[in-house]
Amino acid sequence: MIHSAEGILLIASVIFMVSIIITKAGYKFGLPALLLFLGVGMLFGSDGLGIQFNNPSATQFIGMLALTVILFSGGMDTKLKDIKPIAPQGIVLATIGVLLTAFITGTFIYQICQLMDKYVTLSYPESLLLASIMSSTDSASVFSLLGSRGIILKQRLRPTLELESGSNDPMAYMLTLILISYIQAGGMDILGSAISLVIQLVLGALGGYLLGKASVWLINKIDLDNESLYPILIMAISLLTFSVVTLCKGNGYLAVYIAGLILGNSKVVHKKRIVTFFDGFVWLWQIVMFITLGLLVNPHELLPVAGISILIGVFMIIFARPISVFLSLIPFRNFTFKGRLYISWVGLRGAVPIIFATYPLMAGLEHAHLFFNIVFFITILSLLIQGTTVTLAAKWLDQVDTPKQEEVFNIDLPEDIKSAMSELVLTPEILKHGNRLMDLKLPDHTLAAMVKRNGNFFIPRGQTILKENDILLIISDNDEALVQAYHALDVKNYTLKKN
Fold it and tell me: Between the CA atoms of 196, 201, 203 and 207, what dihedral angle is there, to the nearest 10 degrees?
């Protein structure tokens, strides 16, 4: 039955349903959803319910597609105004930080392999390769965990972590490929490799920027009759960006992140529909990617490498990551000691290292299966230790900021309508000149559009009696009119929501 189309659809639908349902229990106990997806894949795999899947090439392809979509969506969700103040720090962490992590961890792996030769004795280049595979923080894990926890972090820590995780995969990817080539050839041209590294980064950044700008122009000019086609067009653009830049010898992962960043911070038609579509689409690809990785691994092969994996994983969490972060951030002064500790702690490993671990398998390196199993074990360890304590660590380190007041009405107007909105909680001071709407001194071009009272919403009229703690939605065609209104009402604290 499993080889028929119906059987495959049945198994796939059951796996998806179990994955989605189990996230509810995982959230209750503080387990990352991505870890649960890995677990579901392992449950249905060869050591579980018996699905046989041993195709690193297909896994690598699925991972490439998933990372393209995830990085593009991550770029769209990143606000330039948030990352501009911390862009240098994020870029340094994504480049120098990755190099330091790879070097420090690789040296440690080489030393313990000399002491624990019952596993295997790795050469120094092989040790560096294993470390490089795990040297980047995982964008899918960071985006998912920081987004799902809903915590507000101080010191612009969230955009720093998201910028780092969204842009550090290219460095780990290129280090992995360079070291694989070195091991296969028995040597390497260091200068040539450095030049290749720079070219890939430059072409990736330039290609992402140009294709991002081109996509904005295309979306606004094409004028499709069916709005539902715009998200599909964006998806095609993300895949096109990755493939074109990669074929031009640039780094496709960096390109799609920058293209998403350009598109997300530009004025495009139907942006809300596009963003809503991509939210669900990203979750789909995360589920597919992590389940596929879970199916690929054989859990019984993880036990023999548990000892060395725990040593390497704990060393990365406690020493390698913090050392690389603190050294990378020496030139900067805008993070406190506790802030740097938190950046060090959220060095999550996830799908990306496992996907990169398939490259030695595809290259046929001698210890490729050992690399894959160690990386998989360390990913689980990272998600269990760091992924479950993202919020707790922020509280311990006093990095949780006071959240802004949640929007009651949550109304978005089309971007081409220039307006300003604000929500006003009525106090006795505001109502002291009269409790009817007409008694409020609102200037021209300003409208009290809606009132929320005791959970109910209604549209007010001039004679409407207002009460204390009513929440009033005020809308105007410009910020100046709203500011005048608040001055007239003697309101000191307010926030304008611009369209």
Answer: 160
CA distance 294 to 292: 5
Residue 499 pLDDT greater than 80, yes or no: no
Name the residue among 397, 406, 357, 359 with its Cα closest to residue 378. Answer: 357
What one-character DSSP code corresponds to residue 153?
B
Q: How far apart are the first and last CA of the chain?
A: 54
Instruction: DSSP letter for 406, please.
Output: P
For the chain, the residue count is 499
Task: Name the nearest CA neighbour of 431 among 493, 489, 488.
Answer: 489
What whole-number distance in Å separates Cα of residue 261 and Cα of residue 193?
Answer: 28
Look at residue 74 and tell me whether its pLDDT is greater than 80. yes
pLDDT digits (tens, 9 = 90+) for 14-69: 888 888 888 776 666 666 777 888 888 888 887 777 788 888 888 889 989 988 98
Q: What pLDDT digit, counting tens, does each position of 365-396 carry?
A: 988 999 999 999 999 999 899 988 888 898 89
Cβ neighbourhood burial of 128 (10 Å; 0-12, 13-18, 19+):
buried
Closest CA to 77 of 149, 156, 168, 166: 166
Closest listed residue to residue 253, CA positions, set 374, 138, 142: 138
**pLDDT bucket at 450, cuts 50 / 70 / 90:** confident
Q: What are phi and psi of 441, to 5 degrees?
A: -90, 80
Average pLDDT value for residue range 236-262:
93
Asked if 139 and 67 touch (Cβ cutoff 8 Å), the reply is: yes
Kindly report the number of other CB atoms within 10 A of residue 56's CB atom.
Answer: 18
Determine the Cα–Cα distance for residues 342 and 324; give it in Å rounded to an integer: 13
Which parts of 321-405 fold into alpha helices (H)?
A: 321-328, 337-345, 351-356, 358-363, 368-385, 390-396
Q: Which of 400, 279, 284 is closest to 338 using CA atoms?
A: 400
The 10 Å Cβ neighbour count of residue 157 is 23
pTM for the structure as a whole: 0.77
